[in-house]
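Make up an example, fold above all:
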Amino acid sequence: MLGSAEFGDAVVVADLEAGIGTLTRLGDEVVDVVLAVVEPTPKSIEVGTRAVALAREKSLGRLVIVANRVRGAEDVERLVAAFGEVELVAVPDDPAIVDAERRGVAPLDTAPDAPAVQALVGLAESLAPVA
């Protein structure tokens, strides 16, 4: 494995398959942040809580729940109840995202002020602050 000195300020983002399979196979690799993307549904929350428990067990680093398709305060309350003190970023259910997906374009380019885009921009800035 190559050390960070070999890459300088490089950032590597890995989008792993849904579920916790990859986390179970992950060894002692250095991970700065684990983003667990969940939806406010019972099945997604169940898988998310298992992922968080495993990431904590392996001491993988900062944990962030990215709550996708949040439709209101009730969804946020359900997620806070499930994940407790884990950092939570709520991404609202936003028609601008669906529209961009259907058109095959980036929501950031077509609707930069949309609530979901703003939530994701805020998440990105918290992960890699712009100087």
